Amino acid sequence: MSTQPQQPDPVPEGAVTEPEQEQDLPAPGAAEARGTGGEGPGPDAAGGPSVGETDERAAEHAAALAELDDRWRRALADLENLRKRHARELERERAAERARTAVALLPVVDNLELALSHAEADPGSIVEGVKAIHDQAVAALAQLGYDRQGETGVPFDPARHEVVGVVEDPEAEPGTVVQVLRPGYGEPGRQLRPVAVAVAKRE
Known about the structure:
Elements: H1 30-34, H2 51-117, H3 125-143, E1 148-149, E2 161-167, E3 177-182, E4 184-187, E5 190-193, E6 195-200
Parallel strand pairs: 2-6
Antiparallel strand pairs: 1-4, 3-6, 4-5
Helix pairs in contact: 2-3
Organism: Streptomyces violaceusniger
Coiled coil: 65-99
Region (Disordered): 1-63
């Protein structure tokens, strides 16, 4: 018996032959993706941070947040301390101003008491005493920055005067102050009160 391999039968003309089955070949780049050991992609294949790097960043963010929170709390404390200090200083200034005003008025009170103590012994001297005390009180107000205002014959100024009457005065220019009914104290912008006046009537 012959041991030679049998040759395949010749294909008749016009017959359709089935394509030979191709061997499964690895896709291009598959070997590189599996690595030299034939394993799948490693944890760093996608380029993402490792677990250690993520923990480190989280720690840095937590430290930065804690520092900002500490600064914010310190700023709030400083602001509250500033507010309290300002309130104390404002109260001290008010108390000092009240004290300065009282000191300026003390001589007026002393002279009033002195005039009253001598009123029974010499009633006529009471008038002179009251005049002196009046001048002293006006001077005390001027010392505090509130000069007495009571001029006549000056043009009416709405910033300084308050009209309480209108009179006919042929010798006065219309709109001028002809009578002071109540003096004022202080300049425009820092008045204790305006001057109450009567002005000449305009024709």
